[in-house]
Design a protein that fits this description.
single chain, 113 residues, mainly alpha
């Protein structure tokens, strides 16, 4: 807002959100797209899936807390957001361990032949 006022642009809050969020999104796209292409080319699609789902979980956790605040059905607490995200991370860790064991067994069986 200070840069907006100093340069006498007089952009509205919505116009500033449009410009700033659009620019942030494009910078993220230009940084993440090559990384995701590199990961996909090396068969690391699970990492891409994890990053996508983790981002969605963060957004959903915030949306639930905001919804609780708006509807008055609960308190809006950052500890709830942290707990929800930690729940996903713990469950994903269990999944990753099981998946790792599965792939180790498959590799061991394939090497026996």
């Amino acid at each position: 807002m200070q840069l907006n006022d100093q340069n006498e642009l007089y952009l509205s809050d919505k116009q500033l959100h449009f410009i700033i969020m659009g620019a942030i999104g494009m910078v993220m796209l230009f940084v993440l797209h090559p990384i995701f292409k590199w990961l996909a080319a090396r068969g690391h699609v699970m990492i891409i899936s994890f990053l996508y789902v983790f981002s969605a979980v963060i957004v959903i956790a915030f949306a639930i807390e905001i919804g609780q605040r708006v509807t008055g059905t609960g308190l809006m607490e950052s500890a709830d957001i942290t707990s929800g995200i930690l729940g996903f991370l713990c469950m994903f860790a269990v999944f990753a361990v099981i998946r790792g064991i599965y792939h180790l067994i498959r590799r061991a069986v394939a090497n026996r032949r």
